[in-house]
Fold each of these.
Amino acid sequence: MNMLKTPMQEKSSAEASAWPVRVRLVMLLTNALPLLHVIACVWLGCRVSLLSALALLYLLPPLLTRFWLGFRGFPAGVIAASDPGFLTWWVSAQAQMIFNRLPILEEMLRLVPGLYSLWMRLWGARIGRFTFWGPHSRIVDRPLLIVGDDVVIGGGCQIGSHLLVRGEEGGMTLQVAPVEMGARALIGTYAMIGPGVVIEPEAEVRACAIVPPFNRWRGDKRVKPEA
């Protein structure tokens, strides 16, 4: 079998996988945002006060993200890496990165009843009343979470509203969609939930379950998306 690509195929593959220079530049610059954020918090804590450093740590990222997404609009659906929507998502992801790298920061908020849900709302998430967040549960895309009332999210759950995949021609593609959890849903420990997933009200996701992107969970089982 001839595994060599024709010049046309090589050109098509290169065009699909190559990111514009401006995209690479913005990605490189925004990669430094988490480090700059930490440095600013440490400097403020040493020079001004610990309270001001904590305010900068916890309030600046969600407020800037709300402003950024309000100005640009949060992308949704299938987005090519060269599309402007990709950079919109990328910047918002970097603003959240410090909390993804250091989950202890969120665990500290969860010690105070109701404080973590309030903080999540500041990001733009829609969180119902009496939501329980289990220890070490991880929310990757905070603005893209919809939670009903009386929902229990078990410890160690992984909930993400984005997915990077390879396109048909080899290029990078971003899939973005909110995760929805209906009222009184129960999410078992170490469950993994992908973008676009809908957990129906009073459903029970078993422990360690993997719910693929754009699926529904009804009762105690997964419902495949309609063709």
Amino acid sequence: MTRSSGRSALSGILNVDKPLGLTSHDVVDVVRRLSGQRRVGHTGTLDPLATGVLVVCLGKATRVSAYLMASTKRYHATVRLGVTTTTDDAEGDIVREADVTITRPQVQAALESFVGRIEQVPPTYSALKRGGKRLYHLARQGIAVDVAPREVEIHRLELSEWRPPIVGLDVECGPGTYIRALARDLGEALGCGAHLASLRRTRSGQFAIERACTLEQLEGAFSTGTEARFLQPLDVAFEHLPALHLSADLARRIVLGQEIEGREAAPEALQARAYAPGGKFIALLSREDSRVAWKPRKVFARPEEIAPLESGNARTDQRN
């Protein structure tokens, strides 16, 4: 991979198909080298064992990474029953083995108990911090740490493959869910132990694996100056919200941090994306009640970037 030269700083969102064996940070480093942009970050870690959708933000788009991190994720997981490991996945050392005499109905019944809001203990080998140190650093040093459970939400959990001792799972879950921990806990519920054998993220928010690009495709695009075909604008992070197309005067008020009236625009919505004349995305708006004015929640433009067109009222466009 080579770093591009002679390019202005890029902004946008990449939907990358992370390959096996690389960390999420490795992918970020590759994008930095190719783009020449230092402001690059991902929106949800995938372990080296995992593949699939890794959303990477460049430049100004890093300002929306927190919103993308909070999105729903989908995975296809392969779980190996009967073997427990130190890391809860195939990369760890085996600590226990057991015969697997589990039936398919037993697995399906166990899965039902994990759907909804549940308490989950993150893996000991994880990037969470304790006393300023990553848990996996402490675990590698043999330091035992009690990891507190936290609430996560699993929206859908289905048995998609049955080849005992291998089972395939399709998972749709909220942010912060560890699929490794889910595999571990499923094994405990079944009494035989288990670990995560493989994992592929198939969707992160609105970003699907079918539209993801490989690192090889990115390299080719940057080398030929056609990377724009993979870069998506930062407002796609809010495409599920109604769009308010504002006059120049109202748009300037928003980027200056002022409120605007707009009770007739998106009457039921409490959040919206705002655009200046010409279609420039300028801000994320919010309000506590549909009867009150819109407030700028996050601004992405400066007053001088708004064309001096005629005044008018806000109008709404709920098309994505």
Amino acid sequence: MSGQGLIHVYTGNGKGKTTAAIGLAVRALGAGKRVMFFQFMKTPVYSEHKVLSTISPNLTLECVGEPFFVIKEGSMPQEELEKWKKQAVVFPPGQPPREYLEQIAGGLARAQAAVSGKQYDVVILDELNVALHFELVTWPQVEELLAAKGEQVELVFTGRGAPPELLAKADLVTEMREVKHYYTQGVPARKGIDC
């Protein structure tokens, strides 16, 4: 089973899902593996982009997002929504912004090509669970991607709210559970630590 690629899911409300995926990518690179790192619903504004894009010729990093966040109407308390209103587009359930859907669909097609080919040993789909939750990706699309996965490819999904169907297909599931977070005490995201 050592040559077989497995399916990982890092989910939960706690901090550390993307961080765990980055750590796995660095470990894989250290072993000479080729890594494709897709970041869904993100643009290249996070601190890790400055390092990941230069760390190794064996790492390909692609952001698949718009310069705004999307929030499904009714998915968060009004108080929390107020904090996001300048950076986000709120949409009615089942009606995500068309340009976001198109961008995510293109990224998903490239991800499917990455998992089905022999170019990469590890493919990371950062925040794809969140894209599923916001209806930017459908479960049948993810099933198609899973069916296309090459036997040797290690496939990683991150993001809150991983659906039960994905958890059932995974070989490894890690849930990041928030016990305490400084964000709830009013500490904003800090560059180099949270973003």
